[in-house]
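Consider a concrete sample entry:
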Amino acid sequence: MIFNIPNITNRLNKELNAYEFGSSPAELYDPVYYIVSLGGKRLRPVLAVLGASLFTEDLEKVYKPALAIEVFHNFTLVHDDIMDKAALRRGQQTVHEKWNTNIAILSGDVMLVKSYELLASIDSKLLPDALHKFNECAAKVCEGQQLDMNYEQVDAINEQQYLDMIEKKTAVLLGFSLELGGMMGGAKEKDIDLLNQLGINLGMAFQLKDDLLDVYGDPEKFGKQVGGDITANKKTFLLVKAMELAKGEDKKKLAALLTDASIKPEKKVKEVCAVYDKLNIQKLAEDKIESYFKKADKCLSNIDSSVYKKSYLKQFINKLKERES
């Protein structure tokens, strides 16, 4: 197999599609096969493979533990969708909508169990440390989700609160993905730490780019109607910054737009965007995203591996920078 990102992704998909999660009772396992069949970018396991590739060419041992991260990620999506009362995931019915909430909870639970089963395929010498790091990461993801729900109940949060929340909810899992790859590749502790920081910075940039695309993305490329976060009053980086910077009439207008349930979604999106444009929120978001990509690039440059081996991870970072969906 030629070593490149599309081939890594295809291999991971092949491994995931072939994995036997279980069969009976069907109501427990069918939703698991369903959610993983909906696709996704497979960013996290790809990062694990790329992290390992910096230090070893023996990557056969990497794919199965890398899938543990993808299964865990999909477990969180199943439970998040229940909490968010979301009807769609990747353009298809969410598990709790297609089956029911009780089934979705239990199927999510078994996915968490299976993620540990996959992780346990790692070299036995690495397993205790990998489990410890995974557990720390998983707890932070839960903390981030709880903060996200807490923040839905308050009128405003500040920028640092938002950044802390998305670091836990999203970024730490990308950090663990690269960290796990480095461990499996035989990296030194210094480089494993750098990989973790690299992944966290990528995760921050990734989530902030999502926030930006939801408002300023091309609907044709973004894959869904822009402005969904505005319609839902979701506290994104853009809204948090706008609420922080708005003064006088702009502040009153923004508050009214967020509290007036009678306003039509199209009008709400248009008028909130007008406030964003006045406050130059798009540029602020782009600058923040770029700052995290620069931090990621610096981490990569400090890792003790060849320029050639780093080129694949650099290519991956560039793709994330340029993405429009």
